[in-house]
Amino acid sequence: MAYQFVLFDRSEGVGLVTLNRPEQLNAFTLQMLEELLNVFKGMERDPEVRAIILTGAGKAFCGGEDFKARAQQETQAFESAPAPVAPPAYSYNPQPIVPPLPVTNPDYTPLNPGPPPSFQRSEPQDPFAPVYSQNPAPKAPETAVSTRPNSMHDLIRRSYSPLLLQIRRIRKPVIAAINGVAAGTGFGLALACDVRYASDNARFLEVSTRVGLMPGGGLAYLLPRLIGTSRAMELAFAGEEMTAGEARDLGLVSKVVTPESLLDEARKLALRLAKGPTRSIGLTKALMNESSQLSFEQALNMEAQLMEESSRTQDYREGLKAFLEKRAPNFKGS
Predict the structure, then answer these.
(1) pLDDT per residue as tens digits for the range 266-287
(2) Which candidate, 330, 278, 331, places its Cα nearest to that of 309?
(3) Among 35, 90, 135, 186, which residue has the fewest nearby CB atoms (within 10 Å)?
């Protein structure tokens, strides 16, 4: 199966994922989101992928949602529909995010995906009913990720949230090689990655307030934890642009390099991590991601549990043996 809007390559334990709508600044469509989720699910199962690089084709990392197409569709819909009634303030009714269904082929990898699942929206009668089904459905055309003004809730829960959760939960390191603009939900996509390298012409901006929306893509959760609440709010409120150098100074990215060397630098790190103890790296990722929501005591308890799991890996045995033999370990990722 060939993906239409995502490129995938695998070599030396590194999976390279490239967003591929360069003429549209790699802005999201429903199909693109589905393909990207499909690739990450495959890499989770693929033992040949031990580290991941995510980048964009052309001059942008990801321009976020396709606002041009959304504006055209929803403006027409707004003109023919009654004015929406705003819900009462603070009427948030939390519902669990339903994870994506497993792919249909148990031997699935991004290079051998087999028949992909066909996701179809359903209207559950209760908040705990599944929101996906694998009934055959026609392929969505390449349009903006939403066609109805009142579907934002469904769009986020069924398209964006599963992808962002998958990137955060995959027990393999994900490196964002930010080659250009990362805007809106594309900014959030970069933040969901574990390590961020940027070219010196990269730019970061939250554009939602420019069209009367609030930030999406997990940005309101992730950004304050990375650069502090005050600076995060300033960026989100004002829609300011941040340069690669400013992002580095704030700790948002680890390294800023020339555009020509960006992928080489990201690959150097990915290759080093791909040769490391993959399961222990994944457990470290899980603990770090969870620790911000835990008390110190809870974090110590989780550390003990995950340390026990790490100590039962083959790589730990190899590490001890290599230490005693005074040689470099040969980790296999198991």
Answers:
(1) 999 999 999 999 999 999 999 9
(2) 278
(3) 90
